[in-house]
């Protein structure tokens, strides 16, 4: 079945460092891809999405490009802030629109 | 902006008791979901619901679980006889064409 594999954490960075969290997927069709963020004690918030190949999703300085040839949707940010500390989940939604999540990557940004 | 709401935010129950978790999806959405996140683990799909019936369910969603849309606005998840391992955060979601909107979650603690 469809699945998502993302980089295991935790990831610890200094403020203003460059962030990459890898995500690859397996799907039989053409899924939509998402990154969700979960701040401590809160629910899931959609960070960005891409619905077809070569689309780039972006929000709050984060970007991810839907790469069909490498079945990837890596999350990047050029300069992280302490407030970016959270758990990041890569997810896909197939034609039935059931969401499949990766295991989550905990990011800690230190001042 | 419309949002998915869930009540209660935290539910504590004794093992063997029945619990009902409530969700109010976004009003013009037609597809509804429940997900579960055991503390520190990935978000897992439980069930999807469309046109007043279950459209898909995972292996987690056994006979102890049921869902209902009793009145056209609420969407409930019932666990008939809770077990310790049911302790988790439960997220409700509803969707448009591509994107699922998640509620803030209900933390269920089974003692």
Structural class of chain B: mainly beta
Residues in helices of chain A, as a percent range: under 10%
Overall geometry of chain B comes to: globular
How would a textbook summarize the main sheet of chain B?
7 strands, mixed
Structure annotation, total helices of chain A: 0
Oligomer: heterodimer
The residue-averaged pLDDT of chain A reads 92
Distance between the termini of chain B: 37 Å
Shape of chain A: globular
Percent of residues in beta strands of chain B: over 45%
Structural write-up:
The complex is a heterodimer of chains A (111) and B (111). By secondary structure, chain A is an all-beta fold. Helix content of chain A is 0%, strand content 50%. In chain A, the strands form three sheets. In chain A, strands 2, 5, 6, 10, 11 and 12 form a six-stranded mixed β-sheet that branches. In chain A, strands 3-9-8-7 form a four-stranded antiparallel β-sheet, with no helix packed on it. In chain A, a hairpin with a 6-residue loop joins strand 5 and strand 6 (45-50). The model of chain A has no long low-confidence stretch (mean pLDDT 92). Chain B is an all-beta fold. In chain B, a hairpin with a 4-residue loop joins strand 9 (88-95) and strand 10. The radius of gyration of chain B is 13 Å and the shape is globular.
């Amino acid at each position: 079945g469809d699945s998502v594999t993302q980089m295991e954490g935790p990831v610890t960075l200094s403020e203003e460092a460059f962030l990459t969290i890898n995500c690859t997927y397996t799907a039989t069709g053409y899924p939509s891809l998402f990154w969700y963020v979960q701040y401590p004690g809160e629910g899931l918030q959609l960070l960005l999405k891409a619905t077809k190949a070569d689309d780039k999703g972006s929000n709050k300085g984060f970007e991810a490009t839907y790469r069909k040839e490498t079945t990837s949707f890596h999350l990047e940010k050029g300069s992280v802030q302490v407030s970016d500390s959270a758990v990041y989940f890569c997810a896909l939604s197939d034609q039935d629109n059931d969401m499949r999540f990766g295991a989550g990557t905990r990011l800690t940004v230190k001042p | 902006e419309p949002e998915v709401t869930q009540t209660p935010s935290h539910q504590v129950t004794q093992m063997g008791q029945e619990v009902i978790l409530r969700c109010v999806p976004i009003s013009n959405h037609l597809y509804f979901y429940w997900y579960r996140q055991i503390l520190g683990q990935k978000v897992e799909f439980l069930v999807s619901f469309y046109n007043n019936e279950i459209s898909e369910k995972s292996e987690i969603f056994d006979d102890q679980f049921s869902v209902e849309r009793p009145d056209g606005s609420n969407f409930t998840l019932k666990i008939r006889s809770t077990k310790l391992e049911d302790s988790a955060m439960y997220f409700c979601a509803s969707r448009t064409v591509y994107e699922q909107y998640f509620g803030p979650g209900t933390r269920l603690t089974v003692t």
